[in-house]
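Weekly modeling sync, notes
Attendees: S.R. (lead), two postdocs, one rotation student

Agenda item 3: backlog of single-chain predictions. S.R. asked that every request posted to the team notebook include the full sequence so nobody has to chase files. The rotation student volunteered to paste the first one in as an example of the format we agreed on. Action items at the bottom.

Example entry:
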Amino acid sequence: MSAAVHWETDLARALVALGVEPAQAARLAQDSVAEARDAAAAPPDLYGPATVYARTLAGALRGPGPDDAATAEAPVAPRGPVVLRLRGVGKRYRRRVVLDGVDLELRAGEVAAVVGANGSGKSTLLRICAGLTRASSGRVERVGAVGYVPQEGGVVGQLTPAEHFELLGAAAGIGAGRARSTGGHLATRLSWRPDPRLVAERLSGGTRQKLNLVLGELHAPDLLLLDEPYQGFDQGSYVDFWEQVYTWRDAGKAVLVVTHLLHELDRVDHVVDLGTGDPR
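Predicted structure, as returned to the notebook:
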């Protein structure tokens, strides 16, 4: 049995001992290992000992307890105006229900994470929020400019990063020179300096995802919709990505990110759990 499997088993057992339902504990443990794999790290290196991380997860799932409430400061006022509001959002494809009754209110300066098993509708929900897919039921309200970063695709293989910056800049009314300089500056935040000689199809998968992230932010959107954008990142880039997420939050942007998340669960403002993804 591999070290990762041992760690996953230990985490699931520790969660159950802390009162988490066995099925949910197993899914959380599996997602934790998957997130570590995406970050090219061993689970103990990313999260620490399984028993310690279990307490972090269980505490985040329960929310503040009575003792926390007694010592907490006065409630913090909302960070900013509502940028995205979902009310009873559902999506059905013929007889299959993909999403059912999703609610969310996301304000400027907040981060929300969408979690759930494969097939639970995470990417579909983000496409609905971006206006690329129509909801079958419910209501979606958006305010301001939106930046959407898909899980795959989004770049043109024959164009260099600078040409991508110019193309997306032109669509947003940004001059070519400013678009190139802005794109280059945003790239450095992800520890990436684009090579002007390389077209996108010659970039590694992780670097193409960095390009996608820069393109999503290039026009300074009010709302960023990110669909597991760290695929292919090494551990350093993965850490840079989450630091950038919190930089966006501090700058007053709203961020909705589809992710396995668990390593960052206690640092976001909202979690939308879409569950197991079982067909209904």
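Discussion: group reviewed the output briefly. Confidence is low (pLDDT under 50) at residues 64-77.
Action items: rotation student to repeat for the remaining queue; S.R. to check formatting next week.
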